[in-house]
Amino acid sequence: MERVQGIGGVFLKARDPSALATWYREHLGVPVEAGQTHGVITSASAGEMTVWSTFPADTAYFGPGPATFMVNYRVKNLDAMLAQLRAAGAKVEAKIEDYDYGRFGWANDPEGNRFELWEPK
After folding, report:
1. Most exposed residue of 66, 82, 91, 107, measured as fewest CB within 10 angstroms of its CB?
2. What Pfam families does the record tag this protein with (predicted)?
3. How far apart are alpha carbons 90 and 112 in whole angstroms?
């Protein structure tokens, strides 16, 4: 059985993505550079990274519906995980995106929450 390896990212919708990112930087220490809307939190012991990012409130990246956040899960084998989800009856998007830092796929849980799966290179 395929299992999630960790959290690859946490994404938040915001009316003002820059201002919210600044708030998180100043009050929680999230490593967001001034003027940016995303940062990377790295685990020195595991050598893993988690992306933290704000998006405009009207983004379509989180899929349809009123969701204000989306979680990205790191997986070892994206194709096997997507097949496992399809076999379980989950709504899985047909598209897969490939980048030099990994492959991405998307699915929804039984309550309609969209999540992203990332197989790092």
Report:
1. 66
2. Glyoxalase_6 (PF18029)
3. 10
SS3 79: helix
For each of the chain's 121 residues, which pLDDT tens digit applies?
A: 999 999 999 999 999 999 999 999 998 889 988 888 888 887 666 678 899 999 999 999 998 888 999 999 999 999 999 999 999 999 999 999 999 999 999 999 988 899 999 999 8
- Quote the distance between the C-alpha of residue 53 and its chain's center: 9
Q: How far apart are CA 121 and CA 119, in angstroms?
A: 7
pTM tops 0.90, yes or no:
no
Helix residue ranges, H only, 8-119: 17-28, 78-87
Superfamily of domain 4-120: 2,3-Dihydroxybiphenyl 1,2-Dioxygenase, domain 1 (3.10.180.10)
Q: Give the torsion sign (CA, 34, 48, 3, 117).
A: positive
CA angle 116, 63, 82 (to 5 degrees): 35
